[in-house]
Structure formats: C-alpha cells, structure tokens
Amino acid sequence: MRALLAFALIASAQAGDVARGRALVADRTQSLCLLCHSLTAAGDPNQGNLAPPLQSAARLAPQDLRERIADMRRFNAATVMPPFRSTDGLRDVAPAWQGRAALTEQQLDDIVAYLRSLDSR
Ligand code: HEC
After folding, report:
1. Does the CB atom of residue 58 touch ligand 1 within 6 A?
2. CB atoms within 10 A of CB 36
3. Separation between Cα atoms, residue 3 and residue 107, nearest integer Å
4. 67-87 pLDDT, tens digit each
C-alpha cells in the first residue's frame, strides 16, 4: 500500500499540466519559445521564424521533447536555443539566475504535455 502511494505521488509530480504549459510557451518573460518558434495554436501575432514551427515538434515522443527543450546542445552543439534545464557553460548570467535553470522539472513537464496535446496525427 505504501509503495502504491509512493508511486502515485511520483506519477502525479511528473504529470504535466496542459493549461500551465500553454501559458508558459506564450510567456515572453520566461520561456521565450515564440521569440524563435511559431505556433499557430498560441494565437500570438508576433511569432518567430528562426526555428522550426513548434506544431511540427508535437509529433515527437515526450522523452524526445524533454531532452531537446532541456538542452538542445546535445543534438546540435552550435544551437542558438537556450538550454532550459542546464546551467553548464553559460556566461554573463544575471545574478538572480546564477546556478538556476530557466525552467523547473515541473514546468518542463507542463510544456511537454501542452506540445503533445497539439499532435494532430
Ligand atoms: C533563441 C531561439 C530559441 C528559443 C528561445 C527556443 N528555441 Fe527551440 N529551437 C531553436 C532552433 C534554432 C531549433 C532548431 C534546432 C537547432 O538549430 O538547434 C530549435 C529546436 C527545438 C525543438 C526540436 C524540434 C525538432 O523538430 O526536432 C523543440 C522541441 C524546441 N525547439 C522547443 C522549444 C521550446 C518549447 C522553447 C521554449 C521553452 C524553445 N524551443 C525556445 C531555437 C529556439
């Protein structure tokens, strides 16, 4: 029973929240996703065209999305995409952000849940 409860707690802590993820992707003060990516579903008229549309990323498996958002440098050493779950190798970090990743694990889960919810296949 205790093991079952522990499992339920872990599962709920990792489950992403689609609504929170949607708000985070649209948030220009924290995620900045739409600075570089477009996403029609976000309904924002000012979207980036530097990076592939996020709608097409929705097809990726949750783990693949997580790894890319956490640290795109693993897949492209020269990427311009910020590493949202790593502080390795960063320079000129503002004092308030020293030693802190840009997103928490929960926020990453929320964004992954939102992007997966856009998969229209
Ligand atoms: C400064 C620009 C920039 C920002 C901000 C940015 N990205 Fe990216 N992202 C890119 C680029 C460019 C690529 C294409 C791969 C590469 O060049 O490394 C990419 C690739 C990706 C991919 C992989 C796409 C694929 O089809 O393989 C995902 C998923 C992704 N970004 C999600 C996000 C999310 C979610 C956010 C916000 C939390 C975000 N990105 C913020 C520039 C950015």
Report:
1. no
2. 16
3. 26
4. 999 999 999 999 999 999 999
Q: What's the pTM?
A: 0.89
Q: State the Cα–Cα distance between residues 41 and 30, nearest whole angstrom.
A: 19
- Residue type at 103? L
51 CA to centre of ligand 1 in angstroms: 6
pLDDT digits (tens, 9 = 90+) for 29-47: 889 999 999 998 877 778 8
In this structure, what DSSP letter does residue 108 have? H
CB of 33 within 6 A of ligand 1: the answer is yes
Rounded to whole angstroms, the Cα distance separating 120 from 38 reads 16
Residue at token pair 């924002």: 44
The pLDDT mean for the chain works out to 89
Residues 6+ apart with CB under 8 A from 61: none
pLDDT of amino acid 75: 98
CA of 94 to the centre of ligand 1 (A): 22
